[in-house]
Specification:
With 171 residues, this protein is of the alpha+beta class. It is built from 5 helices and 2 strands; from the N terminus they run βαβαααα. The chain has a two-stranded parallel ribbon.
Length: 171
């Protein structure tokens, strides 16, 4: 990211340390580096599986804060778990407080002032299987999958990768 002043660079460019965000924050105040506490400080935001979390008490306040720090014309990519009907023991294990429908997420974003360019779901080809597995409680407690340190090539990962590529080609 480059600030409005072409002589001042932020975000790890030109040997300047990257923007620091407090990782334990609850989303109400993004504690950016001192020179970025102003409004409209960054060009892009990425919120991957954040506002769904139990630590984020007020998702609207978190989205408001994302809007506050983005410059006019800035871009936000946001990812949240979808559909409360998919709530499972996995959600309990990872402290999911809420799941969103596309209209719910759009409402939060538009209330904050964002112009929503696109909303979509991913892994939609697996939705029927995942919904059925969760309704039938195939996974009684904890995560729906075994945690591994390194994703192993082939097998399930290759199949999921192929499904996502097909899905991307369809959209």
């Amino acid at each position: 990211a480059v600030d409005r002043d072409p002589q001042r660079q932020v975000g790890g460019l030109g040997g300047v340390p990257p923007v620091r965000v407090r990782t334990a924050a609850d989303g109400r105040l993004l504690e950016l580096a001192a020179d970025l506490k102003e409004y409209a400080s960054v060009d892009a935001g990425l919120s991957m599986s954040v506002i769904y979390h139990a630590w984020v008490r007020d998702p609207q306040a978190a989205v408001d804060e994302l809007f506050r720090v983005l410059r006019p014309g800035g871009v936000l990519l946001i990812d949240v778990p979808a559909y409360q009907s998919l709530y499972s023991s996995h959600d309990e294990a990872v402290m999911t407080a809420r799941r969103f429908t596309a209209p719910e997420l759009r409402t939060h974003l538009e209330r904050s002032g964002f112009e929503v360019l696109r909303t979509t779901h991913w892994m939609t080809l697996l939705f029927p299987a995942v919904w059925l597995a969760r309704k039938l409680r195939f996974f009684a407690r904890g995560r729906d999958f075994e945690a591994t340190e390194v994703a192993e090539p082939g097998g399930v990962n290759a199949a999921l990768d192929a499904l996502m590529r097909v899905e991307a080609a369809l959209w």
